[in-house]
């Protein structure tokens, strides 16, 4: 079976009746959402907060009850994907461009479960370019300042135009090669004027569910 599907479906075992759930974004969480919808049809009572317009659309189509982030201040659990995870459970997220909403939702979640296929479990973060969401105004200046941290930032392009996030911002994909201190870099990046948020999730994930050769491994 597809490793993303394995991990995505396995995470649903952590969901219990009455939970308020953060619904992540991407092709791994897709399987979680499908499974959740099945359970909702059979009577599971949950309310979801989507982390992107794509997830909102999918969850609505499948009949998962949704609430807005503004109407609550606590979530029981968020299930989301990632682009890289290291053994300290530090993450790079934002390959799908939803990192800001994902981080906001994760920040009010009692528990964050990350679902990945085994290729994303790495010794060092940084081979995957770090997505940084920035405002459009003066983006070249912001990019320049970020490059001084030792990376090569590239404006994300989709269909020959700059990729625009759900929040109306740009994304810089920053090629660091190796990130030694994710905690420090997270803070440093977010101090740069023009940076809205970056894709490093530090001290946020509680459990990683890895899909691997017809089985899953849970790391907490
Ligand atoms: C979106 C994300 C995704 O969770 C991440 O890119 C993983 O996606 P996929 O499950 O499709 O591999 O952070 O902003």
Concise account of the structure shown:
The chain is α/β, with parallel strands linked by helices and 220 residues long. The chain has helices at residues 3-10, 29-41, 53-61, 99-107, 139-147, 182-190; strands at 20-23, 47-50, 75-81, 84-85, 91-92, 109-117, 130-134, 152-155, 157-158, 161-162, 170-175, 195-198, 200-201, 207-212, 215-219. The chain has 2 domains: 3-121 and 202-214, Rossmann fold, CATH 3.40.50.1360; 130-198, Alpha-Beta Plaits, CATH 3.30.70.260.
Q: Could you name the key traits of this structure?
A:
Ribose-5P_isomerase, Ribose5P_isomerase_type_A, 220 residues, EC 5.3.1.6, Alpha-Beta Plaits, four-stranded antiparallel sheet, six-stranded mixed sheet, alpha/beta, 15 strands, ribose-5-phosphate isomerase activity
Helix count from the secondary structure assignment: 6
What is the number of beta strands?
15
Question: What is CATH's topology name of the largest domain?
Answer: Rossmann fold
Q: Strand content of the residues, in percent?
A: 25-35%
What average pLDDT do the residues reach? Answer: 96
**Shape annotation:** globular
Largest sheet: spatial strand order:
2-1-3-6-14-15
Unreliable residue stretches: none
Residue share in helix: 25-40%
CATH architecture of the largest domain: 3-Layer(aba) Sandwich
Give the radius of gyration.
Answer: 17 Å
Q: What structural class results from the helix and strand content?
A: alpha/beta
Q: Whole-Å distance between the termini?
A: 24 Å
Compute the number of structural domains. Answer: 2
Order of helices and strands: HEHEHEEEHEEHEEEEHEEEE
CATH top level label of the largest domain: Alpha Beta
Ligands, ions, cofactors: ribulose-5-phosphate
């Amino acid at each position: 079976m597809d490793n993303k599907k394995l991990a995505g479906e396995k995470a649903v075992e952590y969901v219990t009746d009455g939970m308020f759930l953060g619904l992540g974004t991407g092709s791994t969480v897709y399987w979680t959402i499908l499974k959740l919808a099945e359970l909702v049809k059979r009577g599971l009572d949950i309310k979801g907060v989507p982390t992107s317009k794509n997830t909102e659309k999918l969850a609505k189509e499948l009949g998962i009850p949704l609430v807005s982030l503004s109407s609550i201040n606590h979530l029981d659990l968020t299930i989301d994907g990632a682009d890289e995870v290291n053994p300290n459970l530090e993450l790079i997220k934002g390959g799908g461009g939803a990192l800001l909403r994902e981080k906001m939702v994760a920040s009010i979640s009692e528990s964050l479960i990350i679902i990945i296929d085994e290729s994303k479990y790495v010794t060092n973060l940084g081979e995957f370019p770090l997505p940084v969401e920035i405002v459009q105004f003066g983006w070249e200046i912001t990019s320049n300042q970020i490059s001084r941290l030792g990376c090569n930032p590239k404006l994300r392009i989709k269909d020959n135009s700059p990729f625009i996030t759900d929040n109306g911002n740009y994304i810089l994909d920053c090629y660091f090669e190796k990130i030694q201190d994710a905690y420090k870099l997270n803070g440093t990046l977010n101090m740069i004027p023009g940076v809205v948020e970056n894709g490093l999730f530090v001290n946020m994930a509680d459990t990683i569910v890895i899909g691997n050769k017809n089985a899953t491994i849970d790391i907490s």
